[in-house]
Write a structure and sequence with these properties.
Strand content of chain A: under 5%
CATH topology of chain A: Arc Repressor Mutant, subunit A
Number of helices of chain A: 5
CATH superfamily of the largest domain in chain B: Winged helix-like DNA-binding domain superfamily/Winged helix DNA-binding domain
Largest interface: A-B, 48 and 59 residues
Largest sheet of chain A: none
Mean pLDDT of chain B: 87
Structural class of chain A: mainly alpha
Number of strands of chain A: 0
Largest sheet of chain B: none
Shape of chain A: elongated
Radius of gyration of chain A: 23 Å
Helix content of chain B: 55-70%
Number of domains of chain A: 1
Number of strands of chain B: 0
Order of helices and strands of chain A: HHHHH
Structural class of chain B: mainly alpha
Shape of chain B: elongated
Radius of gyration of chain B: 20 Å
Low-confidence stretches of chain B: 92-102
Number of helices of chain B: 9
Distance between the termini of chain A: 66 Å
CATH topology of the largest domain in chain B: Arc Repressor Mutant, subunit A
Oligomer: heterodimer
Helix content of chain A: 55-70%
Distance between the termini of chain B: 42 Å
Strand content of chain B: under 5%
CATH architecture of the largest domain in chain B: Orthogonal Bundle
Low-confidence stretches of chain A: none
CATH class of the largest domain in chain B: Mainly Alpha
CATH class of chain A: Mainly Alpha
Chain lengths: 83, 213
């Protein structure tokens, strides 16, 4: 296949390249093709939005739950690094 | 993130600033625990690995040379310990649990698309349905549990990359440094992992919707 010719994209292909697109790793023709597909295909647009929503929601998981043995770690730390 | 820059933090840790140590532990511990869980057989072993990692940080901070970011260095320690421990544990695990590879699975089940005999082969047969009030529902405890369960079910490498990149918000370069996974491979793993979490959320939301009908 020569570099200028990219075959048209099917939905089954679109769902595989969403992360490449979000990470800006698609070639220019591929990116254009994907964006054109998303503009015309409701199912893929919904899929794309859900992937972005998933990534955002995953970022919300970075909670700040303290570890079970914070006291033990602090004691070990103070012993090794006295002020 | 509003954490102090590395140099400042490293200085504080070396000088015995317990509150700096405490906030670092509080910040990173959940991600470390999740990463460790990818490799070892139980939560308690994962907690042990994380504890050992912090001890290594306490012992090693004076020798930390700053060639990588502090957090990357800590993740590296964890990943090395977890992989070693995981290999040891793997010998005692049943065969089936060793079979969870990173095979070439599709992002979406193939039966969601039209086959060769459909009107539009390769196009959706059952397209996803937009989630209603997504911000609110994705922030719920239920959705959180769904995501955590989905993450726990991922193969180790996918889990590592997803936790580092999406949960912890590290760059692909930081993840590459900590995990030793090149960017191309990283994107494949990340995409598989994200796809599975999305699918789990979709299933959960679809069920919830079916119940209200």
């Amino acid at each position: 296949m020569n570099g200028d010719q990219v075959p048209p994209m099917d939905c089954i292909e679109v769902v595989e390249v969403v992360t490449d697109y979000l990470e800006r790793r698609l070639s220019e023709p591929e990116r254009e093709l994907l964006e054109r597909h998303l503009a015309l295909c409701e199912g893929c647009e919904v899929y794309f939005v859900q992937m972005r929503q998933t990534v955002t929601a995953l970022g919300g998981l970075a909670d700040h739950a303290p570890p079970a043995d914070l006291d033990g770690l602090l004691a070990a730390y103070r012993e090794r690094h006295p002020t | 993130m509003t954490s102090p820059p590395d140099a400042e933090l490293v200085e504080a840790l070396r000088a015995g600033d317990a509150s700096a140590f405490e906030s670092l532990v509080t910040e990173l511990n959940p991600a470390l625990l999740r990463l460790a869980t990818a490799h070892v057989s139980s939560r308690s072993v994962a907690e042990e690995v994380v504890g050992d990692t912090w001890i290594a940080v306490i012992e090693g901070i004076d020798r930390f040379e700053g060639r990588s970011a502090l957090r990357t260095w800590i993740f590296q320690i964890l990943v090395n310990k977890a992989r070693t421990r995981g290999k040891r544990d793997a010998r005692t695990l049943p065969f089936s649990s060793l079979r969870r590879g990173d095979g070439d699975e599709p992002a979406v089940d193939a039966d969601r698309f039209q086959g060769a005999d459909g009107a539009y082969p390769g196009h959706w047969a059952r397209p996803p349905v937009a989630w209603s009030s997504p911000e609110e529902r994705l922030a719920s405890d239920e959705a959180r549990d769904v995501m955590l369960r989905a993450i726990a079910g991922l193969p180790p490498r996918q889990q590592e990359v997803l936790v580092m990149r999406d949960v912890q918000g590290l760059s692909s370069e930081e993840a590459r440094n900590a995990l030793g996974v090149e960017e191309t491979n990283q994107r494949v793993l990340l995409h598989r992992a994200r796809s599975k979490v999305r699918a789990a959320l979709e299933e959960h939301f679809d069920e919830a919707e079916a119940e209200t009908r």
